[in-house]
Sequence to fold (154 residues):
Amino acid sequence: MSNIQNLQVLYVEALDFYKTELDNDGDVIIKVPDLGTLYLSLYEDDPEYFRLVYPNFFDSQMAYENYGADEALLRSVVNEVNRSCKGAFLTLFRPSEDRPWDVSASVEAFLAPANSLPDIELVKATFGRNVAVIQAARRRLHELLQEYAQGRAN
Fold:
């Protein structure tokens, strides 16, 4: 089996308490209650690399409509979340000029020595923590935007 196939089997087995499926790229899609859909990016030539992504959970249009925040403020808030929230990273991506900026969250780590598969027990033991830091980053993003909106109203 290829590294991708081995990783798919490993992650689906390790995450058996979540609903999982494979997408067309071979990544593992995970449905997390009270959060939504996340995915694990898998790499044939880098099997030890772990990248859990919570894609497009927020965007610049929502920031403006819900908090009165423009794109510059959203970028500043994303930077503050990245500075203050351990382990999770927010990114901004604009798919096209006529679309708003999307905000995604991710956790990245190396879970094994080079060219090795991660240990299934390590994946099981750390996955909940990885989800928790994504939730914390999402929560902090909304808190900071709410603080801005309240300050603007005063």
Q: What stands out?
A: Strands lie at 19-22, 28-32, 36-41, 49-59, 88-93, 102-110.
